[in-house]
């Protein structure tokens, strides 16, 4: 029941934050912060009190109840090592998002925090649902509130960005739903009853042509959210127009749902089609890494630049997933975790600069090291983290992804490795453009007086994210060991299976 309590705290916390605005202007943010922190407590208590049992189910936490029996739909939630890491990341970055919105969101704050908490609830549901109807339900729950966050509290072109985000995610979501319904239909034909249960749908067998088309529906749905080239164009617009908290959630957790879907569902449900598709997936990964790294160098908008780098880094995740080995999958998971922290921090810093200068134009910046040395040091840390500095989590993740892919495709690995060189170029260029040079070069419309350094609350937030990346870099086994058993089982499920006709 701990997972249910986690979801209920986030859902009802959102409602409470909305209602809290009726009593005090500052109540919503406090309620939101308490709700996010409290949401992880039932799960922690459940895990701590659980008695280890080597013969138990692979799920660390599991619950199931009838929901819509006539359709074979169950309210089934499960937590293994993979989803545990991602749920912790979600809750942590949820608290970071609340902190980022603390002073930024003034108008309609109650409704803002309602949407933020419901987005978090949807993401947690996506990472824990093991009934695919329930999974799709949470998939929609996390997207609709994010649309409102961008459309209402975004910047100058917020309506365009929100509409583009909605169209891309809903179109891919409908394709995902269609593929899911086809999969359920085949299960009914073969077994005589309806079911959306993950364990049941693993038993479906299809002829190669049909399996390929259904797999593509799942792949496109998840690759759009990842995102992967050429399905990435919504992301730079969404990031550049979203408020800082929205960018933190988008980069930190929502992109990871696409990768999670590929690992949890696409490969195990369609092993034969996925195997045939692997060379194309690796090619898309390499293109995403190199193309978006190159495009990032051409950006003058700071948030758009960081957005393109996110697509590039997600290419390493796609590379690791389709390596089809433990090293590659562990690299993908570590990259997801490390990128969640580093990208969230970079978008938060970009939002802080925009708040101080009222511009995202890199050409209007420069020389900020002198008036804001603490901000400069923090920005330098996360910039070198993003470029893959050894000793930090990003390096571990990308190195393992490359190592796993090397046994599958040497050429794809070599080309992908070039992306790390591009990452060094755009990361150091941004540092030089924003923080180096004479302070007289800063031409922000708000003037010199507007640029203030990071405060204690901001330093505390960034400090926690720094510690997370350092911990992943120096103690990677603490994270790899948590997910290893879950990833090994998913690999076993993804082994090629004999193709049988419909029974």
The beta-strand count equals 2
The global form is globular
Number of domains: 2
| Unreliable spans | 52-56, 440-449, 497-503
Biggest sheet, spatial arrangement of strands: 1-2
Structural class: mainly alpha
Distance between the termini: 38 Å
The fraction of residues in strands falls at under 5%
What fraction, in percent, of the residue positions are helical? over 70%
**What's the overall average pLDDT, rounded?**
88
Largest beta-sheet characterization? 2 strands, antiparallel
Please write the string of helix (H) and strand (E) elements. HHHEEHHHHHHHHHHHHHHHH
Number of helices: 19
- Radius of gyration, whole Å: 22 Å
Describe the structure.
It is built from 19 helices and two strands. It has two domains: 1-269, no CATH class; 279-496, no CATH class. The longest helix has 34 residues, at 158-191. Residues 52-56, 440-449 and 497-503 have low confidence and may be disordered. It has 503 residues and is an all-alpha fold. Strand 1 and strand 2 form a beta hairpin. Helix 11 (244-269) packs parallel to helix 13 and helix 13 (302-321) packs antiparallel against helix 17 (410-435). It has a two-stranded antiparallel sheet with strand order 1-2.
